[in-house]
């Protein structure tokens, strides 16, 4: 699902109260980290990721890595925090994505 502007604004509003669940640190970006991220998004559909101060990667690097190696979409980039969205593969967990489709 390619997100339009209104849909991204809606998701940003939904993510406002969330705390980052994942962090990118000195270990960097790996396929194992991306697989864990994908699994968490499959259950929640919307999460935040924090890039720690000791990470070698920039926010742009992390965004590019995520978008090129998965079907996860970066909704917002605020400082060293990314808001990520992915439609769940489980139909019972698609409440948020169904609301996004109606927008």
UniProtKB/TrEMBL annotation:
<dbReference type="InterPro" id="IPR035920">
    <property type="entry name" value="YhbY-like_sf"/>
</dbReference>
<dbReference type="InterPro" id="IPR051925">
    <property type="entry name" value="RNA-binding_domain"/>
</dbReference>
<protein>
    <submittedName>
        <fullName>RNA-binding protein</fullName>
    </submittedName>
</protein>
<dbReference type="GO" id="GO:0003723">
    <property type="term" value="F:RNA binding"/>
</dbReference>
<dbReference type="InterPro" id="IPR001890">
    <property type="entry name" value="RNA-binding_CRM"/>
</dbReference>
<keyword id="KW-0694">RNA-binding</keyword>
<dbReference type="InterPro" id="IPR017924">
    <property type="entry name" value="RNA-binding_YhbY"/>
</dbReference>
<feature type="domain" description="CRM">
    <location>
        <begin position="1"/>
        <end position="97"/>
    </location>
</feature>
<dbReference type="Pfam" id="PF01985">
    <property type="entry name" value="CRS1_YhbY"/>
</dbReference>
């Amino acid at each position: 699902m390619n997100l339009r502007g209104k849909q991204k604004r809606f998701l940003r509003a939904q993510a406002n109260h969330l705390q980052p669940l994942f962090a990118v640190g000195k270990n960097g970006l790996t396929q194992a980290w991306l697989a864990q991220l994908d699994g968490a998004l499959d259950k929640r559909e919307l999460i935040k990721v924090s890039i720690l101060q000791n990470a070698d990667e920039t926010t742009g690097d992390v965004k590019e890595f995520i978008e090129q190696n998965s079907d996860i979409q970066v909704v917002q980039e605020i400082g060293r925090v990314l808001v990520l969205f992915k439609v769940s593969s489980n139909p019972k967990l698609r409440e948020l994505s169904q609301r996004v489709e109606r927008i």
